[in-house]
Amino acid sequence: MSSQHNPEETLPSEQAAARGTVAQADDPFADPGLPAHKPRIQDIDERAAKRSERVVAFLFVLSMLATVAFIASFVAFPVDKSVFIWPIGHISILHFSLGVTLGLALFCIGAGAVHWARTLMSDVETADDRHPIEAAPEVKAKVLEDFAQGAAESGFGRRKLIRNTMFGALALVPLSGVVLLRDLGPLPEKKLRTTLWAKGKQLINMNTHQPLRPEDVAVGSLTFAMPEGLSEHDEDFQKEIAKAALMIVRIQPNEIKDPRELDWSHQGIVAFSKICTHVGCPISLYEQQTHHVLCPCHQSTFDLSDGARVIFGPAGHALPQLRIGVNAEGNLEALGDFEEPVGPAFWERG
């Protein structure tokens, strides 16, 4: 509609003229200006400002108390004590208290700073003209001249001994950080390449905890074993069984396709690592007719009659085989360790 139908309205050009910002010919876009500043209650009422000040101070004090509680949690709560917290369930009281207190401490600092800025700090908007960021040509020339003069006076170009030793010092000083990183944990050494299996170690049934005998393993059955001397009560049991877990399958010797697998077996009893070579899940699903084992996590499938090679799924390597035999007592025993590392991602880790 035109201004004739709305006499109470003012055209944009008239509004700009009222603010003294009429568009010029070389600048067709008029400066819209800033809206009128509206004071907050804290700007005009000192009692309201004092209330906001007390709120900010309370949040900061609460943050300090939460930090003290965070430190005290290390002393007050044992790491192995758990409690039931609805709706989370059973959780370590130490981890829960550390998370709550640290979260509260950080939240109160942030909330206090935001409340301080929104209620007590100045909120008057100001406009400033933009200026070129780069320096003027004469300033740049002066800086370059001063730099060249400083380099010449320092003798950096002609005093090669100082220059080269300085470069050496700057190159070596970051190595101190490498030394500090050494304290982050123990070195891996050859722990990824070896397991507890060794020549003469008997195969212990994971269910009965008794040595396995050839007659205990029926054709088509799947049995799980661990090395002799390893106990579930050992402190490092989980770490060691994660590498040494073994699955035992008995296959008719004439059905074994891989010559090395047959040579490393005993009367058709073959022993393969139970740890999937994809992401380390324990393999436990065996199909008797096809001699295939399936990893339940991502469906990697291995053919135990053909060297446990991968026939389906994301696993990139066959399951390592353990060479086995029978000792003087008639129990199954290992004839050495795995000849290749077990588990996932080893080849990427080197």
TrEMBL record:
Residues 243-333 form the Rieske domain. It is found in: Cell membrane. Its main location: membrane. Iron-sulfur subunit of the cytochrome bc1 complex, an essential component of the respiratory electron transport chain required for ATP synthesis. The bc1 complex catalyzes the oxidation of menaquinol and the reduction of cytochrome c in the respiratory chain. The bc1 complex operates through a Q-cycle mechanism that couples electron transfer to generation of the proton gradient that drives ATP synthesis. The chain crosses the membrane at residues 55-77, 83-114, 161-181. Belongs to the Rieske iron-sulfur protein family. InterPro entries: QcrA_N, Rieske_2Fe-2S, Rieske_2Fe-2S_sf, Rieske_Fe-S_prot. It is a multi-pass membrane protein. Keywords: 2Fe-2S, Cell membrane, Disulfide bond, Electron transport, Iron, Iron-sulfur, Membrane, Metal-binding, Oxidoreductase, Respiratory chain, Transmembrane, Transmembrane helix, Transport. CDD domains: Rieske. This is Cytochrome bc1 complex Rieske iron-sulfur subunit. The lineage of its organism: Bacteria, Bacillati, Actinomycetota, Actinomycetes, Kitasatosporales.
